[in-house]
Amino acid sequence: MFANFGGGKREGTTVLESAVEWYLQVKVMKALGVTYKFVSPGRRNVPDRIVIWPAGRVHFVEMKTPGKTARPAQVREHVRLRKMGCKVFVLDTKAKVDKYVRENA
Fold this sequence. Notes:
Trna Endonuclease, Chain: A, domain 1; disordered N terminus; alpha+beta
């Protein structure tokens, strides 16, 4: 049902980030949303996931290891997306994933 469940690790990715990312996928699916891994060739620092909720609501989600924050280049990309009217979230714990899903599903 899912593709690439955290298989294959990016350089610098820890198991903890992968676990939170996996948790996001499961929680969004249970809430009738969809997640896609976001990779943009030629553009670095894009958020890790695109989450699509019913009624066409689209969010960009940056996944981080618990306690870590977005790198400066990632923050600049988040600001760029927000200036264009996009919603961008940075999630680093299962509790934050739960809150995100509860408030957006």
